[in-house]
Structure formats: C-alpha cells, structure tokens
Amino acid sequence: MAKLLEFQTERLRLRQWRDSDLEPFAALNADPKVMEFFPKPLSGHASNEMAGTIRSLIKQRGWGFWAVEVKGVEPFIGFCGLHIPVATLPFSPCVEIGWRLSFAHWG
Q1: Distance between CA atoms of residues 50 and 68, nearest Å
Q2: Mean pLDDT for the chain?
Q3: What local confidence, expressed as pLDDT, does residue 73 receive?
Q4: How far apart are CA 93 and CA 5, in angstroms?
Q5: Stretch 28-46: mean pLDDT, rounded?
Q6: What are the angstrom distances between the C-alpha of 103 and each of 22, 63, 90?
Q7: What's the whole-number mean pLDDT along residues 92-104?
Q8: CA-CA distances (angstroms) from residue 97 to 20, 41, 72, 85, 100?
Q9: How far apart are CA 53 and CA 34, in angstroms?
Q10: Spatial distance between the Cα atoms of 84 and 100, rounded to a whole number of angstroms
C-alpha cells in the first residue's frame, strides 16, 4: 500500500474517503445540474461502485480523487484530484485532473 496523501488550504481539505461520504456522493451524482455534461445521473448503486473504485485507486497509488470538505462547515462537497485514464488516448500516457462538486459549492 502506498503512502496516502492529503492536502489542505485555509478553507478546504482534500482527504481520504469515509463511509459517511457515500450518501452525499450519491446525491451529488443524482443531481441533473451536476451531471449535465455526463451521459446520465448515476444510481445509488453506480455511485457506490464509483466511490469504491476511487478509494481502491487511492489505496494503490496514494493519490487520486480525494474527498473534498469545507473545514468546519461541510464534511463532504465532492471530489477533486488526479486520475490515470483507463482509455487509450492519442496523448497517452497521461494523468487527468478531475473534480465533481455539489451545485451549492459552484462559483
């Protein structure tokens, strides 16, 4: 297992996922505004599977899509971080930057 990395700013914390993140993550993935540019909103089951994959990849590499919280205000607002795409792309190998935040925290 790799050393698990976490980051924080004055306001935000990028941290490891908790079981308590699954319910707000499912709500985020079911929100049509958040998922507007994705094929479709995710079911609760699909959301939990995605969270499991994210957690597994962080455990392997030490980095990935971290859970994001607003320190002392909101324990989970989405995810942000880095990911190695599964698909072979014209510019592979690469690492992508990704994020998905609840609509209330946009802007």
Answers
A1: 16
A2: 95
A3: 94
A4: 22
A5: 97
A6: 17, 25, 32
A7: 96
A8: 24, 21, 26, 10, 11
A9: 20
A10: 16
**Token pair of 64 as six digits:** 């990935």
DSSP letter string over 29-42? Answer: HH-TTTTTTSSSPP
Domains of the chain: 7-105 (3.40.630.30)
Provide the percentage of residues in the chain whose pLDDT is more than 70: 99
Residue type, 100: R
Give the residue from 65, 54, 80, 70 showing the smallest Cα distance to 105. 70
The identity of residue 24, as a single letter, is P
Judge whether residue 52 has pLDDT over 90: yes
Helices and strands in the chain, H and E counts? 2, 5
Q: What is the pLDDT averaged over residues 80-97? A: 94
> Which residue(s) pair with 69 in the sheet?
13
Helix axes 44-61 and 22-30, enclosed angle (nearest 10): 120
Tell me what percent of the chain is helix, strand and coil, each rounded to the nearest 5: 30, 25, 45
Nearest to 67 by CA among 23, 2, 33, 3: 23
**What is the model's pLDDT at position 2?**
79
